[in-house]
Design a protein that fits this description.
Blueprint lengths: L6 E7 L4 H4 L13 H14 L6 E4 L3 H14 L3 E3 L16 H7 L1 H8 L13 H18 L4 E6 L1 H12 L16 E7 L2 E9 L12
Parallel strand pairs: 1-4, 2-3, 2-4
Antiparallel strand pairs: 1-5, 5-6
Helix pairs in contact: 2-3, 4-5, 6-7
Length: 213
Amino acid sequence: MHSTLDTHFIAIRHGETEWNRESRFQGHLNSVLNGEGMAQAQALGVRLARERFDLLLSSDLGRALQTASAIAMRTGHEIVVEPRLRERSMGIFQGLTPAQVQARYPEDYERFRSHDPDYVIPDGESMRQLFERSVACFSELAQRHAGLTLATVTHGGVLAMLYRHATAMPLERPRDFPLHNTGVNRFRHRLGAWQLQHWGDIAHLENVLDDTQ
């Protein structure tokens, strides 16, 4: 039986976008879900309709809201928009592919690739700034909604920060875990401490056709 102080999070990355497919830096810009992403979101909605959760929250960026809307259509939840769940601001990199960034901003790209958590992308955020924003947001939500289960639709960068926080993984260490579009990730918050319960569950995508194959 769960403690009434436990807050449970179903933390979800948005469905695939055209810019995901092209490996473009999205940041605070937006690229709508592609056909694959819409199919992923609809499959996710069917899955979450079989679960109980109390609140549905979403980043204010369009790709997250599209994904959350597919859930809400199946579950009947209102979407609570939470701007702090936004992706990392990628500043001057936004809208560009890695090759374009490397060509236009070679020094900044090398700094970015070095995994220095304090490197601030010009006009954007550092990894540490994203970490502090993401952890503060989830911790505040956990305290405000103690005892509830929250479904949160957010972004790969934000989810990576919560993973690192819950597992005490240093920001300097290269990521060695997947960030699946519409992956279901589960965390528990109890008395200020975070526990990762399950990561990267994409069982709902078994029957979603990948149009690249």
